[in-house]
Amino acid sequence: MVSLNLSKEQLTGLGIIIIIAAGLILAVSAPLFLKGKPVEEREKINLINIFEKITREWGEKEKLYFNSTDVDVKEVVVNLNASLGSFKVSFEDTGLPFQAEIEQQKSSPKPVFEKEKRNQVLYCSLKVEEGKVHVFLDPSWKYSVSVKTGTGAVTFTSITGVRVDNLFLSTIVGAVNLNLQGLIRNVSVKTETGAINLSYIISEPLNSSVDCKTGIGAIKFSVAVPEEAGLSIHAETGVGSVKIKGDGLKVVSSSENEIHYKSNNFDAAKSRLDINLFTGTGSIKGDVETMSSTV
Questions:
Q1: 282 and 243 within one domain
Q2: pLDDT of 38-69, one tens digit each?
Q3: How many distinct structural domains can be found in the chain?
Q4: Residues 6 or more apart whose Cβ sits within 8 Å of residue 59
Q5: Is residue 7 one of the residues assigned to a domain?
């Protein structure tokens, strides 16, 4: 008795070969089998059409669109979820509080979009099984945004004038990229396996916090803050190095894989930015720049 130990990839390849072979057999034998049958009977048992439909739609993609036209609201709460897929969130002057474009396999389950308006707050929820999702938000509204995906990258980009009170980004496997400008408060990023890349430009004083945590992956960040703002950076890695450059920073405490910086004006500052960074395995690198609040 022969035992075959095949990997998952080999089994998948073998399954594809079997499907193709079955299709070829159907293509050759079906005309002989159907010969002489009534037309109605041929249509009922024509397996060739079924096979052609499967192979035609296998891998075929489609684009779906969702939006909300509820413009008479002051705040928008956005919840995005995907089992297998990537999210890109950006801000544009669309005139609508929420728009989404989804590219997915035609055979995939359809996304579920729900919206509800309560007390001048619009709640938008989008659930996707798989695919690439691009969400467009408009700077005219204030937002709270939550993005969760099982496997896939998350990219969030804001521009000057954007107001986000809470931003939560989470992925089990996948990188997270943030390009932040405007008034972005309370940022939380979590990934079990994946790099985190953060660029944060604060053109006016505000009180905010940024928490980034990854199990396996590097963290890279660059932050530009007004010269009158206080800044605290706490960085820790289980296995890896920590390198942070910036003028006006002093070391409050440090150990082999952990360091805590504060700006010289932190205690007296009226507005403060607290940054906490942790990676289990990976390096942490960062640059800090101070600039005039009139920029």
A1: yes
A2: 544 444 445 555 545 544 455 688 999 999 99
A3: 2
A4: 105
A5: no
